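Thread: quick sanity check before group meeting

JM: Hey all, I'm pulling together slides for Thursday and realized we never actually wrote out the predicted structure for the chain we discussed last week. Dropping the sequence here so it's in one place. If anyone has concerns about the input, flag it before I start.
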Amino acid sequence: MRGQVSKSLGFIAILSVVIGNQIGSGAFNNPVVLSEFGYIGLLGLILSGIGAILLSLVFARLSKHFPVNGGPHTYISAAFGRKAGFFIAWIYWIVSWLSNAVLLNTMTSYLSLIFGEMSSWQAFFAQISVLIMITALNVAGIKTAGKSDIALTIFKTTIFVVLPIVFMFCVKAENFAWDHTNYQYSTSTICRTILLSFFGFIGVESATNATENTKNPDRTIPLAIVTGTTIVAIVYLLNNISIIGVLGFDTLKTVDAPYAVAIDKIMENINLATHYKGGTIIAIISVLACFGTLNSWTFTSGQIAYVSHKEGFFNASFGKTNKNGSPYNAILLSAAGMIACLMLGRITIVENLLTKILEISSSIFLYIYLLCCVSFLAMLRKLEKKKSSAFVSAILSILSLAFCSLVLISDILSGDGISTLIITTILIFTGIPVYLKNKKTILQRVQNV
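JM (edit): ok, ran it. Output follows.
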């Protein structure tokens, strides 16, 4: 019941969710992925950050008009009906834990650098062990999950602030040289780099899923969304520039763990390379970073499913809470989905699909964000009473809509977006049995604006 919701999350906790959901293992891979494009990659990262900040401003305004738990599917449902809201909630929930399953694979690859190479089943049991720990933290209650998320986010953010400072001592001007003869500053190339780097900003809207559990949500949620996304954008840019300055574009293309190579290079300069290995240090940091992101997204996934039940979209089993106010059934169901996905990952045929899901997630989230912008524009006259506020909201929505559209259209024209559309369609179709079962509840419930 609404009256039983615990408002236990303050600004720091919500800020931690926003930052924690965005900064993950992708932060370690961005320099390698974007290095192939040289300065175009940096341009794509900057534009991606600007787009994420624009989207954060849109979600900040939407959260003020809809002061309830929900997020994207709540806004789309209010604008285009509950049928549309259901299918957005369904795919949003699936992608939230599906991405987590792949993140667990990434985490175990770093664990193997610490404890040695693992067999397929050893990696599987390590993933299950981590998943049990993450699930237990979130089932223990929103407050417990929030505290652990704060600690892990502070650690991750501190690391990504400290690393560029350390790298600056070994930056060389010649490392910024780049042979651009094989590249053109075309719209399609720039949009490709935006899509690749945007994965690091997924979660910009995550705070809206816990509005009812937040103290002073009218102020806290918007401030946390915008502040958190801006911090993430700055952190990503500083890290990419500094590591390019240490290693150079050509070296970045050839390494799998650029931060480990950079730290090894710095240690060689201070004669510590024989005592410490950068790979091990980075592996430990990466494991903790992945753990923090898993914790944030497990919390978010549980909230998505729980709120979807409250709105009449999902079955009653999603709405059960324990004495600590944790939607334990929703969290356990998300964990079950992750376990099923990990088991499929043991099959060689499906393994490539699990890896590909990281890139596909960026596109799916961009589609959801695009629909949120369209929804805001459709409801603008009803939501914004002041002309000045309506004008600002319209400009922010149009710019965000243009950003999402440009990237997605470019991706489709390049051919890569076709597979995303197919997989997105398949994921939507998996929700049809759930929709048919709950059709009466879904269509009869009235969405209040």
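AS: nice. The CA atoms of residues 141 and 386 lie 40 Å apart. The chain has a mean pLDDT of 80.
JM: adding both to the slides.
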